[in-house]
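Continuing from the previous page of notes. For each protein in this section, the sequence appears first, followed by its structure tokens. Read the first protein now.
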Amino acid sequence: MGLIYVRYELLRTLRNRRFVIFSFVFPLVLYLAFTSADRHAKLGGVPFPLYYMIAMAGFGALIAAISIGPRISAERQMGWTRQMRITPLPTWYYFTAKIVAGYAIACLTLIILYIAGLAFGVHLL
């Protein structure tokens, strides 16, 4: 039952356009825009594409992980958590699904930016 709710929470999260834009699209577009111009620059001996990839991955993952709280708050304000309490789903499933969905999206952001970094020749090892 818990995994099904996690799946629905992930689908619901990915349908939120604003969330997808700020978690996936915005960091990716900024990364591609800035690193295409300064592909061979170095910051303190670190290649700029690597430096900026880490920064944008951190930004996207942070947005994905922190957005859990406001979503729970908005659902509580709308009365959704009250509705969930009258279902057989335990409360800890509800919160666990939110956390797992947030961190899964954060990992997806990291993977997308890592693939973009590979396109610019960034190697982390």
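Done with the first. The second protein uses the same format. Note its length before scrolling.
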Amino acid sequence: MTYDIYFLRVEPGRTFDETMQEVNSAYDPEAEPDPMNLTGDQRAVWDRLTQRISREVGPITSEEYLYSLTLWRDGPAGHLQLDYAGDSASIEISYRYPGQAALPIMAEAYRIARMVEEECGLEGYDAEVDQSIRTGEVDVAAAKLGGVSHWAHSHLT
């Protein structure tokens, strides 16, 4: 289980929720997922994004898989993973940052999330705390990550 931030391409006149509902309604758990088929422009966006994250946040590792391009950021703040598939993306953070230890990784996650929005033209949404990335508060997200992490550490180890 991870703390997840989602990104979708939201068409004008639509909301993130409407777009997510449409994506979810088309999901077939029995079907084999379609392999990623990025355009040249989408690959160029990924290249710009990874270069920007490396330059402004710090070293990254990235790899291409059948269904997404994946970036890992392991730094002083912690570890996060970004998956990109052209018209969607997600950031995952493990629940291993209890209490105040969650603030640095969440601040970094929101910083990267805002770069994803700017570079990719995707809209970000933090469903864990029901807030938009563009206007959301890092402290609120960090409190949620820190609280769940503390509970998990206290009850599951």
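What the second structure shows: The longest helix spans residues 102-120. The mean pLDDT is 94. We return to this in next week's lecture.
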